[in-house]
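Example 5.3 — Transposase IS3/IS911 family protein
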Amino acid sequence: MASKKPTPDQSTHDPEVRPKAARTHWSARDRLRILAAADACAPGELGALRREGIYSSHLARWRRQRAEGELAALTPKRKAAPTPEAQRQTAELARLRRENQRLQAKLAQAEVIIDVQKKLATLLGITLPAPPPDA
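Solution (predicted structure tokens):
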């Protein structure tokens, strides 16, 4: 039998686009947990960690980081309660923002009223006095 050659319009490659593998990232808490589990294992049992995608190079690096104190530095720290001064400043900022919004709305309304007054004066033929020059 002769082999069948693809014609120019037929594609020989797979058109499916496969996603790239995403790297797994472990938090400091996960690393410490995994190291504790690895330390509790006998040397032959470490293959069980491969199910999580962990290799001996990960364990060696994490053990070095743990010994140098880097992993402890990565653990999340609790946020301190805001000080009374910070709470006052936050409340003052919120009040000023509300006041700013209110004044902007009032200004927009005043500008509309002034525009209507100018148009009405033009329609009625009334001359308005010139505004005073700004100092």
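Remark. Helices lie at 28-40, 56-68, 70-74, 84-124.
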